[in-house]
Amino acid sequence: MSGVELLALAASTSLLAGWRLYLVTFVTGLAMRLGWIDLPDKLVALDVLANPWVLVLSGAAALFEFFADKIAFIDSLWDGIHTAIRPLGGALLALAIVDPGDPVWQVSAFLLGGGAAFLSHAGKAATRVMVNTSPEPVSNMIVSTGEDVATAGLLALAIANPVAAALIALILVLASLWLILSARRFVRRLVS
Predict the structure, then answer these.
(1) How do residues 98-137 score in pLDDT, each as one tens digit?
(2) Where is the chain membrane-spanning (predicted)?
(3) Which residues lie closer than 8 Å to 28 by C-beta, 6 or more apart?
(4) Which residues contact 107 (CB under 8 A, 6 or more apart)?
């Protein structure tokens, strides 16, 4: 992978970590382990995500998150707890993908990765505030399943074509901003 592709992969995985941190960590590590992500020789030391322990822990957490996300009140609690965890996880994912020998890349990846994960998490949580207030449980499950499918699809695209995935990630950043502002207006109307 070229430097541009690695940066695009870091951006995409960070953004997706704001939705499904554990699934993204698991799939990225599995892709590294199976050789789907071709790391340059100088980055082979970064295959920490491919460590069997990391794969088992992130896989188990992804499975738990899959079910927790389908129940409205548990989902809201889960999102609240992960407001700090997902941005940090997104920052660390970006850091694990870029060149470890260049401090400028490290700091840039960490800051941008954390910011992207926070923004997508905020968009997800803002959307869920609106969906979870619905009296029927079906809408939450539909939205959650849509997030699962979108995360898996975009992650597959990020592995196959990181630059295209980064462009889609940019569109998602703009959509997240719109969702945050919409949720803010929605909450204001509820309070008023």
Answers:
(1) 766 778 878 888 888 899 899 888 888 878 877 877 777 7
(2) 6-31, 43-68, 154-181
(3) 13, 37, 49, 93, 97, 155, 159
(4) none
